[in-house]
Amino acid sequence: MAKITTIGPKTDVLRERAAKLAERGDFEGAWRLCEQVMGEHHNEAGGLILASFVLWKMGKLEIAYQLATRATQVAPHDPAAWTNLGCAAQDMWHVDEATSAYKMAERLSTSDKTRAVVYMNLSAMAIDTGRWKEAEK
Predict the structure, then answer these.
(1) Vertex 73 angle, CA 69 and 75, to 5°
(2) pTM for this prediction
(3) pLDDT tens for each residue of 91-123
């Protein structure tokens, strides 16, 4: 398992600012801050998870996929890491990998909100691939 990097207050602040920008839909601004976080702490779980999400939203699927994969290695018990991997894999049409990632996120999730997102993503993927009965579940 990868070593989890310890971060300082400056990195926490940058990551929080990036998350707020992402919530407002400013993914370019969020990415600029993520780059700073990643430059200093490239194995920090929170930074990897946020950066993979931001890049996925920006349509930079290959990089988002790589960072999400790394996030699952650094933080294997974090459902957000697995959800992000599922999203990137799904948009790259890696259906089996996306399904596995979403199911792992479901198993690890402790919140109804996260499970709802996972179920919605699984249903959308089933519709995209013409598996109508599965989508109804």
Answers:
(1) 110
(2) 0.87
(3) 999 999 999 999 999 999 999 999 999 999 999
Give the C-alpha separation, 60 to 51, whole Å.
11
Q: Which among 127, 34, 124, 112 is positioned nearest to 79, based on CA atoms? A: 112
Backbone angles phi, psi at 101, to 5 degrees: -65, -45
Residue 57, classed as helix, strand or coil, is helix
Structure tokens belonging to residue 79 = 């459902």
Calpha distance 2→14 (Å, rounded): 23
Question: In one letter, which amino acid is 10?
Answer: K
Amino acid symbol at 67: L
Q: What angle do helix axes 45-57 and 61-74 make, rounded to 10 degrees?
A: 160
Residue with tokens 């300082």: 8
Would you state the structure tokens that stand for residue 104, as one six-digit string?
A: 């792992």
Instruction: Find where tokens 């699927």 sit.
Output: 61
Q: What angle do CA 89, 91, 94 make, to 5 degrees?
A: 40
CA distance 128 to 92: 12
- Which of 122, 41, 117 lies closest to 49 in space, CA to CA? 41
